[in-house]
Amino acid sequence: MKRIIQYLLKGLTILLPIVVTIALVHWFLVTIETWLRPIWESILGDKYYFPGLAFLSFIVIAMVVGFSARWRFINKLWQLPGNIMEKMPLLRSLYGTITDVFDLMSGKSFSDESVVRVTLPGADVKLIGIVTKKPGQKDDRLSALLDDDHIAVFLPMSYNVGGYMIIVPRSSVETLDMSPADAMQMTISGGLGKNRAHQDD
Fold it and tell me: Where are the transmembrane segments (predicted)?
């Protein structure tokens, strides 16, 4: 019986990530198809529409939006809906959290040497974190609260979408040669994932 349970758990560890990934991709494709298909059918008609056109048009739209954001005036127009949602009490927290997560995973706004190993004061415990704020950043509330010799570090939690933001002295951190995305993957998986070291060419 014990061996059967071990086989079951092994099978689940292989199949569940595949199933969840496929389910998320399917949801994403279906959502785009549901939103954009009626528009294309009204333009082309049912005869000329083919499955996948909605997704291809979404990719093109995303590329055009990203390209047009190079100009300051157009970039402000794209940011207008987000700025409006940030002023709405019910949507502000949700929208801000989502944008912060995307910025965190993409490494946006992170400076060089942003992944660090933190040694907790008075202990030998070391944690991997990501520097989110440094003192001296203009128009930033958290940066204004930091002393010159302190930085804000985000400590992701393993197997959980969450973490802690701590303020520590610079002497308590050691820079790691790692990208924020790799650091997030390693800490969220608890170090159990296949985090292969980068090979020098």
Answer: 7-28, 48-69
91: alpha, beta or left? (left if phi > 0; alpha if psi -120 to 50)? alpha
Angle, CA 23 vertex, CA 3 and CA 196 arms, to 5°: 65
CA separation for the pair 144, 14 (Å, rounded)? 47
List the structure tokens of 166.
């701590």
With 0-12 / 13-18 / 19 or more C-beta atoms within 10 angstroms meaning exposed / middle / buried, residue 93 is exposed
**For 170, which DSSP code?**
G
The answer to pTM > 0.85 is: no
Phi, psi torsion values for 155, nearest 5 degrees: -110, 105
